[in-house]
Amino acid sequence: MESKISETTNILHFLSALSNNMIPVLIGVFSAAVVLRILVYWNIRRELWFVRELEKRIFRDLSSVPGNAELSFFRFTKNILQKTYHEIFELRRVYGRRHHDQVMSVNDRMFLVQEGVARLIMDFLRHARYLKHTNEQPNFLDISKSVFENNKIFGNIFGFISVNWVNNFLNLLPNLFVICGIFGTFLGIMDGLPGLSGLDVTDATKSQAVMDAFLLKMAYAMNKSALGIVLSVCMTLLNSSFGPETIYFNVVTRFTAAIGLIWNRSNNNEISAEDVHFVDARDKLEIEADDALRYSERFKIDHQILSNAVYFPEYFKNKGAKQQSQEKKPEQQTKVS
What we know:
The protein has twelve helices and two strands, in the order H-H-H-H-H-H-E-E-H-H-H-H-H-H. It is an all-alpha fold. The chain has a two-stranded antiparallel sheet with strand order 1-2. The longest helix is centred in the N-terminal third of the chain and has 42 residues, at about 20-65.
């Protein structure tokens, strides 16, 4: 009997402590939710940034291809993806002078954007290898969805916090805030009711003090419901303003449309032995290392392949020629002076 009374007392103390700390807990959860919502939004925005940079280069390079030239879908796609990767990450890292470039470089390292893009490129080219060029366009939408959804780096914040889990939890928070606010109100009422036992009908002053204390607790308990409703409204507005669903849909559709342009312009999907070796290189390196590689180790493999001049001779040859021409200009100017 005494043990049951002790357990009941402990539960009442726990509920009382929970009731007294409900408002700080709600505010703390809301503050953490705001940070997580911004992180999720920024993570998907960087994916959109990559797709935009890819679109620019596809439009520019396709416009320079002669109308009667034979174009291999895989080779052109491989070159344009590698070119985009190298220019938006490597060249910015080496030659970045602007404060904006330095800030974005730090953000990309925090959110593993370069690692995610490298994985995205290698995964898409693995699918593109087996496409057969016919009059009908392949279902690039399903391929794009598969590539983005199965990208474990883009699918996590800082490499270990699941974006899908966080997004689903944040979408539930508005309802949870209301429920927790009402629950906190009932806890406050339950915590204040025992105080009414001190009422003494023969002592008006003491009874007035007891009632004042009870009403004060009731007002504090009602504030929890009001706070829960306010936080629910704020969280709903935040989810609507910074929800990733619309941006993610834009990312997938724009990526699909850009790849579709290459397919419509290409004449075949011929793959050379060098291209086959390029696609198989990552799998061989991963198998030789270990199947359970960490993100950093997988990125080293992807980056090693994407930055290898053996697989992209045309790009690095043109890049070297441009650098030589830029180095000659200062020499010519000094001679003239």
